[in-house]
Specification:
This protein is mainly alpha-helical and 267 residues long. 79% of the residues lie in helices and 0% in strands. The model has no long low-confidence stretch (mean pLDDT 87).
Length: 267
Amino acid sequence: MGIIEAIILGLVQGLTEFIPVSSSGHLEIVETLLGGNAENFHLFLELINIGTLLALLIYFRKRIWGILVDVFKKMNYKLAINILITSIPAGVIGFLLSHVIEDMPFFSSMYTVAIAMGVVGILMIVVDKLPQMGKLKSENDLTKGRALLIGLAQTFALIPGVSRSGSTIVAGRLVGMNSESAAEYSFLASIPIMCGVVLKSLISSSSRAYIADNFGMLILSNAVAFVAGMVAIGFIMKVLKKSDNLKYFGYYRVCLALIVLILVLIA
């Protein structure tokens, strides 16, 4: 993999992991454009999750520290347990079926990416026009049942084009959170899953061999993903302070979905 490709992949991963436009969908599009080896491409993407995970941990370090203080000093487990409940469905399904998902043509089809991108985009537009369902002040007010519903919605992000942040923000809005709180909860709930993805990648013998052979490019791509991720988190948290801004990401997704469908059909 060349320097330009590593920079492009890091940039796309960092920006789209946190902005609700689907990192997997954008990366599938990039893979098609670059014409890379599918197996090595997906392994490279798993390993540059390190950069985006680091961005998430640093950006929300105070919030994470507050949760740890609640658990170990105040014995307040509510938010920590809800985060685990939300992360379990997608984490378990992703762990058990990751190889099956990677090998199924459905999950790498541009038709799948375009349809998923468009459907979730329409959901975002619709949800943004609805009044807030309930008045949860923050993620601390979530019940376990609502946390599970958000987690079940997150499983759909295993389909390229859906978006982990997009699915959880939409689900958060539907269970009564405002867009800003839903986004913050979405990012906090993604930490256990991203940690699992990184750990799984690092303990694999084939991954370690790949790291040794591509160490320089992985460092570069992770550095780009980290910087882009920090920018993207700050951007999305600022934009979603206004609850009716989610629809703009929906419009973008629908437009991109139409462009991808047209290109696939005429190719």
